[in-house]
Automatic annotation (TrEMBL):
Domain Helicase C-terminal: 284-429
Pfam families linked to this entry: DEAD, DEAD_assoc, Helicase_C, WHD_Lhr
Domain of life: Archaea
PANTHER family in the record: ATP-DEPENDENT HELICASE LHR-RELATED, ATP-DEPENDENT HELICASE LHR-RELATED-RELATED
Listed name of the protein: Helicase
Amino acid sequence: MSSSGSQAGADAFRHLGDTVRSALSDRGFSQPTEPQRRAIPPLAAGDNALVLAPTGTGKTETAMLPVFDSLVAHRAAHGSTDGFAALYITPLRALNRDMRERLDWWGETLDLEIDVRHGDTTDYQRQQQADDPPDVLVTTPETLQAMLTGSKLRDALGDVRHVIIDEVHELAASKRGAQLTVGLERLQLLSGGFQRIGLSATVGDPEAVGRFLTGKRETDKPPAVETALDSEPPSGVDRSFEIVSVDVGSRVAFTVTRPEITPEDERLAGELATTEEMASHVRTIRDAVADNESTLVFVNTRQTAEALGSRLKKLDVSLEVHHGSLARDVRIDVEDRFKNGDLAGLVCTSSMELGIDVGRVDHVVQYGSPREVARLLQRVGRAGHRHDQVSQGTVITTDPDDTVESLVIARRASEGLVESTAIHHGSLDVLANQLVGLLMDFDDVSARAAYEICRRAAPFHELAEERFRAVVRELHSNRLCWLDEDADRLETAGGTWQYFYQNLSMIPDEESYEVYDMSSRTQIGTLDERFVVNFAAPGETFIQRGEMWRINDIDEDEARVNVAPIADPGGEVPSWVGQEIPVPAAVANEGGEIREIAGEQFARGAETDAVARDLAPRYPADNPTIESALDPIERQIESDHPIPTASRLILEAQASTVRLNSPFGHEINETLGRLLAALVGQRTGSSVGMSVDPYRIEFEVPSGVGLSAFRDVLLSTDPAHLESHLELALKGSETLKFTVTQVAAKFGSLKRYQGRGRFGGDRLLEALEDTPVYEEALREVFHRDLAVDDAADVLRQLQAGEIDLELVGEATPLGGSGSTHGQELLVPENADASVIETLQKRLRNDRILLCCCHCTEWEHTTKVRRVREQPECPECGSTRIAALNPWAEEVVTAVRAEQKDSEQERQTKRAYRAANLVQSHGKQAVIALAARGVGPDTAARIINNFREDEADFYRDILAEERQYARTQSFWD
């Protein structure tokens, strides 16, 4: 493996034959781009290569020109190939359309057939491709899975000599990518070997991504494999690769700004029904769009895209919203209008990071911290390539944390300090899926052969044989394969075929509802099932596609929501799950360093503008923006409190809140937070709530639990046992239950029709605890959410005195200045009458489960508006009625059962607290308990405010719902 230099220079095209060079002249290519100068020589020589360059720098042609040249030369020497000669694999269907348009010209000019195949390809087109394969097929990872099992297509795939994988960094970090790597090994069994070319944005660990692309080098042919497959799999296939990397940092320029409030913003705040600060953000984005011909406005969540898009449209800005939950036709229409110049801007999410062709982009705005260096480079890298310009990007920040974080990320991006790719190693559900795939390929195969084939793929290099055997036994018990123990062979079984075609993708199955505009009878997008169940009802309003809609009716059988457009600004923003982008430790650590440097200057008496001037040469922002981030630091010093850094942690407490100031990033803080919440709760016999951001961990504790309990856990927990503590902490959590359900479906352990409603998460967890399903679910949660090794290092350093731990008996300015990520542009903090009315209406129509805690025989689910002022049990007449969410079947079970364990006891106490509240306060308690994320303790706090004004009562509920929205993913 080596990194290509630039010695090839402008003569890169000389490595191509006369036919392709002639076509280049016709196409207007006079000089190669930098990626082409560096990559064409090794690619033309047939080497495997990973090409790293920004979007828009000609990566597609970089890969395809040497491939086209090879196909033309092969045809001249040997005649036409009967099968596919090259596969171009791309992770998004949307890319297929762009790729087809860009490659068709080359196909026509060079007399090569190029075609596209994905899930929407018609049966007629599929048959045509099987009967007469094109030279180049553009397809997706999932479609390749299906192709590997067809008899005609398998023959055609036997001729593959080149595989190009676009956006390989996107696949490397997902289970889709792990699945693809084994799929490529199955393809290699058919073709005997092929050139592998990966196209990617800049990554932090190119060697790892290159190995992900190429897999394991085989020097000896395993006899067991040859015997099992009755063929000669390739041995000694060259798995070495070149890394061709184009420096990105010198091609991008960033400006970080936190807008100052102007007199115009005071007027806009009223017009947009938002705060003056948020109005300043909207105004700044409006002006950026006006100053450029074409602007992409990136946001971190779909809900922010919808909220921001709706407000910009109210100002008549020429833009639309683009994200993955919009209907395909809507997305294509938006892309085409932007490309044609009919739109000046797009408000978009991560889907637009990839290479979807939307024409020239002059400028990129990132609203809120991009959270990662790689994400900022990928997004801003979309601008300015058509005339080899420097890509220009503006980051608009929203609060002090956001500003410091963005300054750090912009600096690191300019220096090319990109994060490593989190490759899924040893995913057992992927292994199960691909073992079934192998059986679809060959009907039967020796277990040893299957094991060796899977281990050739990079994510499974270290796969232990015992884990492999456990997965096989699980598949056997689920009737997805037959294991002949004596012969050590795997064979197809009754469920093999159906399972495989239902599980071509490793993307988890989550129910979604199609949203239809009744007036035009067109689909405008989709809504997550959780949003529909929790918030949606006839008459409710929400935002999608940047416009307001009112729900007319919900068709449960067809999973369809029928809507009509309205102008009312009071709607809910559709809610999607799992969009939190974790901030890396290195970014959070540097944020701590900035605060420490500024703090030292403030301690010496420096003025704010002087501190900002000292920081400005290192970070790309003007003085007012940097100053806006310094206020909580200056107040921290004035209050005589230390600055939290990676080498000094601060534990602080105020009332029922304990906060650990720890600038370690999301994953380490999540790991430490779960440990502390579990062990402090266990030691004190209390429930401890937790929320996390990159710079602090906040705990809600009952009275009597102080800082010493948290200090003791940090200083006494053996780092070597951290993983086992976390496993115990995760048991029974919604995070693990949800993940087990998804993994079980991929193992065939849980049929789709069962779902969580038919077989509760607790029972499923218990049933699968000693299986590879549970092991994989736990591995995925650890991989996705936690950083066990890094957190263990923090514990070791704390216990060795290398990291200081200071205790403060009050809230500090830095501790209390937590980020407001995710709240951007939703509603004003002081909700107006229309928002309160919307909240009242929603709560009245929410469903609630009533359960008698006296006789325990009666339970009833109804809407809140139908509950009597003083609920009572129709069986025994008791008023001890618990009001619970409609899915709390485990709580009802706990009430009826003997208290056998601590979890049942906890659930029982929860129900009794709710019942006592309803008995004392009647329907008011029911309303409070129906709110999102409001349990008995929080409901009691709301009621005990003794609000005389009903609107103030609902404002208190809204405040608690906002708090829950910020911390939702951390409450189990």
